[in-house]
Amino acid sequence: MIHFYYGPGPNPAKIALFLAETGMAFEAIPVDTYRGAQHDPSFRAINPNSKVPALVDTDGPQGSPAILFDSTAILLYLAEKTGQFLGTAQDRPQLLSWLMFVATGLGPFSGQAVHFQHAAPEGLDYAVHRYRREAERHYQILNDHLEGRSFIVGDHYTIVDMSAWGWLDRAVRVMKGEDRPLERWPNLSRFIDIMNARPAVDRAHAIMNGHAFKTVMDQDARQAMYPTSFSSASKGTAS
């Protein structure tokens, strides 16, 4: 049995989409990050980094439990376990390259753009500009790559598309102030339309909406989400 630990964010959404696409049996276990549930000892035993998603497969390799965290690791594990959404053998080098492009570039810079535009204290203009521009740069790279393509790797829908979708689906948060944030990148806009037309996307959203998470970013939520940053700020020191 797959135990899927999730919260309301783009990285858990990627895993929800994979599960929806494959129809794998799983239990969705909510982790209310705004309430600090990611710091509970029981969850930190699964993910010492105190972030979602995480996954426990009670039927792991050779019948032993497998514990995973980080959305990229989970996508690779599930794809290899099921033999689905990995493309062809010839695609493997590009699949790994673009998967890591999302994992180390598009995702983190988008996440930091969201943080500094929506959650950080005001007055950090350099950080806002830095991460917003880097997110835009990664958008442009992927937009150029998708010219004449339906999918990111080869001719097949893969876990790379799922991973990119998780963040591009939140473009309105990344590109704060833009009602149609992908309009500047027509290939990304087309890609998202292709992705959102898949029936599994609706099922993934249903998984993600299966719990009423706390949504108010009050002081308690800031402390839970960014404990080192906001505890240091409250003491007047930089983190």
From TrEMBL:
Which Pfam families does the annotation name? GST_C_2, GST_N_2
Q: Which InterPro entries match?
A: Glutathione-S-Trfase_C-like, Glutathione-S-Trfase_C_sf, Glutathione_S-Trfase, Glutathione_S-Trfase_N, Thioredoxin-like_sf
CDD domains, sorted = GST_N_Ure2p_like
Domain GST N-terminal, by residue range, is: 1-86
Cross-referenced SUPFAM superfamilies: GST C-terminal domain-like, Thioredoxin-like
Alphabetical list of PROSITE patterns matching this protein: GST_CTER, GST_NTER
Record domain GST C-terminal: where: 88-228
Output the PANTHER family linked to this UniProt entry.
DISULFIDE-BOND OXIDOREDUCTASE YFCG, GLUTATHIONE S-TRANSFERASE-RELATED
In its UniProt entry, what is this protein called?
Glutathione S-transferase
